[in-house]
Amino acid sequence: MQFKPLLFSISYRMLGSISEAEDIVQETFLKAYQVDMENVEHKKAYLCKIVTNRSLDVLKSARLKREKYIGPWNPEPLVFESNEDDPSELLLQKEGLSIAYLRMMEHLTPDERAVLLLREVFEFSYKEIANIVEKSEDNCRKIFSRAKSKISRIEDESLHYERNKSIVNRFIEAFMLQKTEVLLELLSEDVTLYSDGGGIVRAAIRPIFTLQNVTAFIIGLLKKAPKDFTVEVSNVNGQPAIVIYLNGQLSNVVSFLIRNERIEDIYMTLNPNKLPIKTL
To answer: At CA 106, angle to CA 32 and CA 244, rounded to 5?
Structure first.
């Protein structure tokens, strides 16, 4: 079970789904139990190959579901507890985990996603990657280069937790006090808001573009919000995010893409099937 955090990390990053990643990891270990692992020379590589290929299968079959998904699709937020000594959390909080990064992965093909993660996030050699995805090393290099060019926008995402937390706190204050001028300072001119309700709860079914429209939408949310809502800043996917509760029940997780100390993307996840079970 020593490889469980690694296997979950790979599958979750590929799929953006906690439940699916957990199922795949369980399937991987069940498959491993059916063989004599004592005769497997490179256990880590063997398990990573199983979990990657199974994740690829799920990802390819899920593409049709994503196309039929109602409204924008956001990855399932992964809310961390405060225990920084947990080795699985330390592994998960490496680069390539932010909601912005995972959402940008949607622009990649399944093979591009696998190669990019294995190389850039988990630092596998091209020889190891070629064995896992069953392609030549040269082909893997080309796939990696192509994938990198597709997600170039995310390259300079700020991952400085405390600095980003300060920006998020200022955002909350401006939102609560309806300080439009402060929101205008914090948001990029090209800011986009993605509201994921999955057709289950009310949410914007299309991305909201431009500073003016996003600001108006945010202020409108506050005016419609019930009085019994509370907010807190939590560690979500290794970055500060806003967690919103209604009647003590978790109802919304708001994550951000921050670049050059400005908010460029806002990811609101309201779909109850994607929210972790947590109450105040």
So the answer is: 95
Q: How far apart are CA 23 and CA 143, in angstroms?
A: 27
Query: Can you read off the two tokens belonging to residue 145?
Result: 């280069």
Positive or negative, the Cα torsion across 184, 186, 192, 194?
Answer: negative
Task: Take residue 260 and report the two structure tokens written for it.
Answer: 């050059």
Q: Which ranges constitute the DSSP H helices of 69-203?
A: 87-92, 99-104, 110-116, 126-133, 137-150, 161-176, 180-186
Instruction: Tell which residue, 89, 96, 100, 92, has the closest CA to residue 113.
Output: 96
Amino acid in position 20:
E
- Per residue in 191-208, pLDDT tens? 999 999 999 999 999 999
**Is the domain 4-68+109-150 a CATH 1.10.3720.10 member?**
no
Strand partners, 243: 232, 253
- Is domain 161-274 given the CATH code 3.30.1390.10 in the classification? no
Share of the chain above pLDDT 90, in %: 69
The model's pTM is 0.91
Query: Quick one: which H or E segment has residue 16?
Result: none
Are residues 11 and 21 in contact, defined by beta-carbon separation less than 8 angstroms? yes
